UniProtKB/TrEMBL annotation:
The chain crosses the membrane at residues 35-55, 62-85, 97-117. This is Phage holin family protein. InterPro entries: Phage_holin_4_2. Keywords: Membrane, Transmembrane, Transmembrane helix. It comes from Fischerella muscicola CCMEE 5323. Pfam families: Phage_holin_4_2 (PF04020). The lineage of its organism: Bacteria, Bacillati, Cyanobacteriota, Cyanophyceae, Nostocales.
Length: 121
């Protein structure tokens, strides 16, 4: 239970950091507050747990042909879908470029945060 809460908080913090980094590019990646980030982290977790595996199976031939680069598109779509499910909470991604860059930055920031959280445990 402790690791679940730490992962949830880590994802929310990573989402806030990603939004702050991407605000300089003005591409439409917005997270209003920490509460919004917590809610969005729940929806990102749900999408990653249920929908993303199905997408990965269906897109396996394309991913194989592109030597794994299509996985970035799948991650961007999963992130956009999570923002689509939470528009009234203040988590907004406007367009495919924002979703693509957001998924890349979010994965890097989230990896760093989760590394430090594992060291703390």
């Amino acid at each position: 239970m402790k690791s679940f809460l730490l992962t949830w908080l880590g994802t929310a913090v990573a989402l806030l950091i990603t939004a702050n980094i991407l605000q300089y590019f003005d591409i439409g990646f917005e997270v209003d507050s920490f509460v919004t980030a917590l809610i969005a982290a729940i929806f990102i977790g749900i999408v990653n747990a249920f929908i993303r595996p199905i997408l990965r199976i269906l897109a396996f031939p394309i991913t194989l042909l592109t030597f794994g680069l299509f996985a970035f598109v799948i991650n961007a779509f999963a992130l956009w879908l999570a923002s689509f499910l939470t528009p009234s909470y203040g988590f907004v991604i406007e367009g495919p470029i924002a979703a693509f860059l957001g998924s890349i930055v979010l994965s890097i920031v989230s990896s760093v945060i989760n590394y430090f959280l594992r060291v703390v445990e």
